[in-house]
Amino acid sequence: MSGYYTLYAPCFVCNEVFSSNPNTVPSLNNQPICRKCIKAVNAKRREVGKPEWPVAADAYEPLPEGELP
Fold first, then answer.
1. Contacts of the segment 4-8: beta carbons below 8 A, 24+ positions apart
2. How many structural domains are present in the chain?
3. Has this prediction a pTM greater than 0.70?
4. pLDDT tier at 1 (50, 70, 90 boundaries)?
């Protein structure tokens, strides 16, 4: 039997609870950032010529149980 891990946490920016992959979700000081907010942050960074924060393709998907450290 296999399963998945999902991190449920409040977003560092907007404080809304969301689900994510605990290994790859973007975070600041170990505080996760939701998809909506990271998109807004990256849009602002593009506007001012700064590089975007990387977002893994699986950042907001469950983590297969065998991949939890």
1. 4/62, 4/63, 4/64, 4/65, 5/62, 5/63, 5/65, 5/68, 6/62, 6/63, 7/32
2. 1
3. yes
4. low
